[in-house]
Amino acid sequence: MSNRNAEEQRMITIRDVAREAGVSASTVSAVLGNRAGRLGIKAATCEKVVRAAAKLRYRRNDIAAQMKSGRRSSMLFLLSESVDNILFGGLAAACAEAENAGYFPKLLRVETENHEELHRRLELVLRQCPAAILCWGDRSGDETYLRRVTEECSIPFVHFDYVSRSSRAYVRTDDPSGIRSGVEHLHMLGHRRFAHITDIMKAQYAEIRLRDYREALAEFGLELPENRVLSLGLNAPESGVRTFLERMRGEGVTAITCGSDYFALQALSVLQRDGVRVPEEMSILGYGDLGFACNCYPRLSTIRQPQAELGVCAVRMACRMIRGEPVTEPVLLPSELVLRESAGPRMK
């Protein structure tokens, strides 16, 4: 074997990086361990260390570093299949907050119904000793398992955008306040007959928001019976939405509320293709204020969910739990009615 090949196969150590960068091994450890800011290490020094590590193709052994220091360095974000690119703004904010706190964000995305796959992959991740696990969305079918595993491993576990049935460690939006504002606005515009389109009812958010809409409508002496509620998955065929909307128009419904902007956009598209004017003949109110809500025509009136704040608050709650601080109450973030062009006065 040539000397060159032997050199390439020799494991690069932190001392090699220190020698290349012209700094101490402890400085390299601090920079690559994401502690430079707290220790006041200059940006120019950090840049030299990072470039030296890249040049030498140094790979830090995070697990060994955790075992040596006793400090766990990663946060695991557990995602369901419903968390897609449009919702990644909130996830990106959560990951940035984790990095600011000195943790490496790791993502694990598993289908909600695939319990065995979740158990298998989570067991592998637990070997890497995450400092905390944060779960975005509905994992009600796995909540007992997740609580048991994280308690056995002494790992803080935080839900966001979900109401936990067994813990106060969760962050969610105050749905009722925004929904009541939306119903009040539509009532003021003269609407008295409402219909609702949402996700399948096994999705927790769909069940909660439907309940909140019914309670808000009841304050104005109005109702939302079962025959005016359409529950369907995100990839349901358009024909079902069209049949429902045709029936609702025949029954005198003038306002469609939705559990998500996805369903509001689908209703808007179907109505426009069928020649129904929005909002002149039918008003639509979404939920979420997702990125496309202000890029369609007419733009969606909706209830804004502060996704970035959800992620940031969940990470901060996890950090408090890592420090041993008790979490006695969930964090409830305000929702906000956003008025655009898809909701208007009822036609006389």
Automatic annotation (TrEMBL):
Taxonomic lineage of the native organism: Bacteria, Pseudomonadati, Lentisphaerota, Lentisphaeria, Victivallales
Assigned keywords, A-Z: DNA-binding, Transcription, Transcription regulation
Record-linked CDD domains: HTH_LacI (cd01392), PBP1_LacI_sugar_binding-like (cd06267)
PROSITE patterns from the UniProt entry: HTH_LACI_1 (PS00356), HTH_LACI_2 (PS50932)
One Gene Ontology term of the molecular function aspect: transcription cis-regulatory region binding
Domain annotation HTH lacI-type: ranges: 12-69
Protein name: LacI family transcriptional regulator
InterPro entries referenced in this protein's UniProt entry, alphabetically: HTH_LacI, LacI/GalR-like_sensor, Lambda_DNA-bd_dom_sf, Peripla_BP_I
